[in-house]
């Protein structure tokens, strides 16, 4: 029998003895590591130091998780504070529920604090980390698969996801895997930002703004397919309106920033030479200076030696002249 749907895991938790390993949390953690790894490579290519991205992520990640959870709880408050609900569940982040809008907003605040402590411009850091954030989202969306949540309308397409849980009002059946659609879209966004950054040398936050705009385009049509409970305004889900607003702001930033600050930053981190491969270039320049110093020292030694030989030759000639004069007298 051919597989006609994507099966869902029977449980989102694996146990190693008494230690629970939750699929949702595992996906988030892997996503963070990928974002920091790629961001570090891009930061070094821009002339920054190794480890700077990770140091700032220590501030950005906790703020991002807090912001993502706050956005989810505020916009879906009925899941935690309505009759028959337990408000303590609002703290159970491992059960799912992170709003990307809140995560980016407070994550940016945390990154700003980290950048300020190191004297680094936030837009340059944001440009370096942007594709990594998109890949982190692509990985994190698979946490929704573990929790059997955030799926779309009922369908019988071969790539439909099978929902077997009936908890929280779920109806077992096969549905559009919107988590998969968003995951693939985020991979495409990451590749787009990397290509555009290489092609157009985006700077001053424009690579990050491109990521935001491109993500909003995908989020709009994917959000439109979802069937989970949500607040609606004029027939559209709240996140649809948020995606439209954030998209317009991102495009406006790109246009205004390109006019006021064309090009990209020459130096992204204090104490570095800046530019692509700046850190390596600084080392090469140092080697050239050392070679010049060595050549200068050799020249000085040679000049000193020649001066000494000339002096000795002059003394010998003077001595011969003196001897000749004594014979004549």
UniProtKB/TrEMBL annotation:
Transmembrane portions of the chain: 21-40, 52-74, 94-115, 122-140, 179-196, 208-226, 238-256
Pathway entry: Protein modification; lipoprotein biosynthesis (diacylglyceryl transfer)
InterPro entries cross-referenced by the UniProt entry: Lgt (IPR001640)
Keyword annotations from UniProtKB, A to Z: Cell membrane, Membrane, Transferase, Transmembrane, Transmembrane helix
Skewed-composition ranges (Acidic residues): 286-297
Cell compartments where the protein resides: Cell membrane
Principal location: membrane
Keyword check for Membrane: yes
Membrane topology term: Multi-pass membrane protein
Segments for region (Disordered): 264-329
Biased composition (Gly residues): 272-284
Family named by the database record: Belongs to the Lgt family.
Name of the molecule in the record: Phosphatidylglycerol--prolipoprotein diacylglyceryl transferase
Source organism of this protein record: Streptomyces edwardsiae
Gene for this chain: lgt
């Amino acid at each position: 029998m051919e597989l006609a749907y994507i099966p869902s895991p029977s449980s989102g938790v694996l146990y190693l003895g008494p230690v629970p390993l939750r699929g949702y949390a595992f996906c988030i953690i892997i996503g963070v590591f990928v974002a920091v790894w790629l961001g570090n490579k891009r930061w070094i290519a821009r002339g920054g130091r190794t480890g700077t991205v990770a140091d700032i992520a220590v501030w950005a990640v906790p703020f991002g998780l807090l912001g993502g959870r706050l956005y989810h709880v505020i916009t879906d408050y009925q899941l935690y504070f309505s009759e028959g609900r337990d408000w303590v569940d609002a703290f159970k982040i491992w059960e799912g529920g992170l709003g990307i809008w809140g995560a980016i907003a407070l994550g940016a605040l945390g990154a700003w604090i980290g950048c300020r402590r190191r004297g680094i411009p936030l837009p340059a850091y944001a440009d370096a980390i942007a594709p990594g954030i998109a890949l982190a989202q692509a990985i994190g969306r698979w946490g929704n698969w573990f929790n059997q949540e955030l799926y779309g309308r009922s369908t019988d397409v071969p790539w439909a996801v099978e929902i077997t849980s009936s908890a929280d009002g779920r109806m077992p059946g096969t549905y559009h895997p919107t988590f998969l659609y968003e995951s693939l879209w985020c991979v495409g966004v990451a590749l787009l930002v990397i290509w555009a950054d290489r092609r157009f040398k985006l700077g001053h936050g424009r690579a990050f703004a491109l990521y935001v705009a491109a993500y909003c385009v995908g989020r709009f049509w994917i959000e439109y397919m979802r069937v989970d409970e949500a607040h609606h305004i004029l027939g559209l889900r709240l996140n649809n309106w948020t995606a439209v607003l954030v998209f317009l702001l991102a495009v406006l930033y790109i246009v205004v920033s390109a006019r006021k600050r064309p090009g990209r930053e020459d130096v992204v981190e204090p104490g570095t030479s800046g530019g692509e491969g700046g850190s390596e270039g600084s080392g090469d320049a140092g080697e050239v200076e050392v070679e010049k110093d060595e050549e200068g020292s050799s020249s000085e030694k040679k000049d000193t030696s020649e001066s000494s030989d000339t002096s000795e030759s002059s003394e010998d000639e003077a001595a011969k002249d003196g001897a000749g004069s004594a014979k004549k007298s």
